[in-house]
Amino acid sequence: MSDIKVGLVLSGGGALGMAHVGVLKALIENGISPNIVVGTSIGSLVGGVYSAGVPLENIEKEALSISTKQLFDVNLNVQGLLSGKSAIKLIKNILGQDYMIEDLKVKYGAVAVDIMAAKEELFTSGSLLDAIRASISVPGVFIPHKIGEKYYVDGGILNNLPENYALDMGADYVISVNLMYGYKPRAIPKTAIHSVVYTSFIMQNEITNMRPKLSNVRIDLNLNGFKQHIFNKTSAEKLIKIGYDETKKQIDKIKKDIAKIKKP
Fold first, then answer.
1. Catalytic residues
2. What angle do CA 257, 261, 262 make, to 5 degrees?
3. Strand partners, 151
């Protein structure tokens, strides 16, 4: 399998992204280490940490320690509820430092949306922290992230499961993980932020469903029992296990498929 480039695509979905850690754990335990990782929103975060070479056991440990209050930095900027500074601090602590994407151990791409140009953009170079911060900028929650003269919001607005980019980046075999499979809001929106976020998630799911499936295996995770905005150890443990178990169900197929691929 060493000469086959395996691409892993990680969707957005807020705190549901802890399930991505379980997917990685199942793949790596079975000798499948992705050579290319593309992520949107929380998928860009988990994928970026993996691509930077952070050991899987450390990624899992950090996932279990994250709490919602660590991300909460209410500010007076009307563009968003949170400044994003606390999120960046947390991510940098996990990474240990910022990295240039082109120097990462694993080929990596993060999807964000240039809000003024109204188009998605794939970050494959430059600051990893900037790319992640741009990709996680959920409208109404985080203020848009400025890079140069551009302002970016969450990549899931236009492409929450960016399978196309994994192929563009040279993957021979693509595994994608859809956190938003069958998404429905859990409750009646209580605030304006809830209304914006719920609507955004519904839109993301519909866009994903309308796009052609470009992965060889899509791991659809129905996580409707969990809240996208709640990070805690109990939920993380359950989500990691779900991601792990669902991936294990497809491991035999993945291995057989990869073994059949003949490189020219």
1. 41, 154
2. 160
3. 146
Distance CA 126, CA 132 (A): 11
Mean pLDDT, the chain, integer: 89
Does pLDDT of 206 surpass 60? Answer: yes
Look-up of token digits 């900028």: 137
Q: Is 114 buried (19+), middle (13-18) or exposed (0-12) by CB count in 10 A?
A: middle
Distance CA(151)–CA(104), nearest Å, equals 24
155-198: per-residue pLDDT in tens? 999 999 999 999 999 999 999 999 999 887 777 777 766 777 77
Q: What is the CA radius of gyration of the chain?
A: 17
Q: Which residue type is seen at 214?
A: L
Q: What does the alpha-carbon distance between residue 168 and residue 130 come to, in Å, rounded to a whole number? A: 22
Q: Give pTM, 2 decimals.
A: 0.92
User: Which candidate, 187, 194, 50, 48, places its Cα nearest to that of 124?
Assistant: 48
d(C-alpha 37, C-alpha 226), whole Å: 25
Whole-angstrom Cα distance, residue 115 to residue 151? 6
